[in-house]
Specification:
By secondary structure, the chain is α+β, with helices and mostly antiparallel strands. It folds into two domains: 96 residues, Rieske [2Fe-2S] iron-sulphur domain (Rieske Iron-sulfur Protein, 3-layer Sandwich); 196 residues, Naphthalene 1,2-dioxygenase Alpha Subunit, Chain A, domain 1. 20% of the residues lie in helices and 26% in strands. α3 packs across α6. The chain is globular, with a radius of gyration of 22 Å. Bound molecules: FE2/S2 (inorganic) cluster (FES) and fe (ii) ion (FE2). The site of FE2/S2 (inorganic) cluster has 9 residues, from loops.
Length: 362
């Protein structure tokens, strides 16, 4: 295990290998990502259809199927036939049954076994485990999340959002498919997050963002399973309509940035929410999704929530250059700036405690 000291003042950052070692990456996928809540772009499915979804390709590679029944109800089921495991659906289909192309086993769109030709004589068959496993879908407002194996309860995971975003009318948020962005970054998933988790680099890397925030008031608070960054608006910039009972009531807040472990980012701006998913694709390859949910479209081009593509470009450059530097045999471990990097430290400490013993990773 990579040990991260609890006291930030004396703690050291993870060693370079934590950001590219394939064995460590595999351990992260199995121990962290298999039971994480993972955000999905809202699928638009016609009734009676099935669409294959390989979850986190290159990382989890979990074969799933999204189905919509005749009422359009979305379900997510395993894409592995319960007989000998053949992948059931390889291309989108219009159908009301999933039929295995190997020995003809059939399933309803909710995963229930609907026919198993040739199994006469099999004892204790079918069992419940001969149905396709289903994966729960939970929603935060309009945003869907799934969890492959049972882990933390969704309500507990999202609990801090109830107070922090109490002013947001979740029913009024509208997903804007045209504004979706997908970036591929040549860096480890944690490195992208490390960069997200501090405002320390805003004055040096993001000049345009620094102009709309009061950089001196930027601050961080730790949450049980993540962190909050508070972007105070510069004079004259749009602000969040916080409720009178909000913990930051009375302050001019231009943006609230919440990270929930391991890889979900909720960025709340006066116009609405930018959901970001930092999806591992390999030890040094990461997909970053920006999904936009709009509340007040007239505010889209103003303040800290505008020009997000430019900020992303600036972040990608520093993150990829950091990945390149971490390869160095001459780089050891860094230190944390206690007043600036509390959220980075909190994330690293949580991460290190999830991992199994890694004797080679001292
Ligand atoms: S593997 Fe599907 S029916 Fe045999
Ligand atoms: Fe940044």
């Amino acid at each position: 295990m990579v040990y991260i000291k609890e006291q930030i003042a004396s703690a050291e950052t993870p060693p370079g290998m934590a950001y590219f070692d394939p064995g460590l990456f595999e351990a992260e996928m199995e121990t962290i990502f298999t039971s994480a809540w993972l955000g999905l772009t809202p699928p638009r499915l016609e009734p009676n259809t099935a669409h294959p979804l390989d979850l986190l390709p290159g990382a989890l590679d979990e074969p799933l199927v999204l189905t919509a029944d005749k009422n359009g109800t979305l379900r997510i089921v395993s894409n592995a036939c319960t007989h000998r495991g053949m992948k059931l659906v390889c291309d989108p289909l219009s159908t009301n049954r999933l039929r295995c192309g190997y020995h003809g086993r059939r399933f309803k769109l909710d995963g229930q076994l609907d026919g198993a030709p040739g199994f006469r004589g099999a004892e204790n068959f079918p069992r419940q485990s001969d149905d396709l496993a289903t994966v729960p879908v939970r929603y935060w407002g309009p945003v869907p999340f799934i969890q492959l194996l049972t882990g933390q309860a969704f309500d507990e995971w999202t609990d801090p959002l109830r107070v922090l975003f109490d002013f947001l009318p979740l029913d009024a948020l509208r997903y804007d498919p045209g504004a979706r962005r997908r970036f591929e970054v040549n860096a480890n998933w944690k490195l992208y997050l490390d960069n997200y988790l501090e405002g320390f680099h805003i004055p040096t890397v993001h000049k345009s963002l620094a102009a709309v925030l009061d950089v001196g008031s930027y601050r961080t608070e730790l949450l049980p399973h993540g962190s909050l960054q508070i972007g105070v608006a510069a004079e004259g910039q749009p602000v969040l309509p916080l409720s009178t009972s909000h913990p930051l009531a009375g302050e001019s807040i231009g943006a609230l940035y919440v990270h929930l472990f391991p890889n979900t980012l909720f960025n709340v701006y006066p116009w609405g929410v930018s959901m970001n998913y930092v999806n591992p694709m390999g030890p040094v390859k990461t997909e970053v999704i920006f999904d936009r949910y709009v509340w007040k479209p007239d505010l889209l081009d103003l303040g800290a929530g505008s020009d997000l593509d430019r900020v992303e470009q600036e972040d990608e450059e520093v993150v990829e250059a950091t990945q390149a530097g971490l390869r160095s045999r001459l780089y050891g471990r860094g230190r944390y700036a206690p007043e600036q990097e509390a959220a980075v430290h909190h994330f690293h400490r949580w991460w290190s405690l999830q991992l199994p013993e890694q004797p080679h990773a001292q």
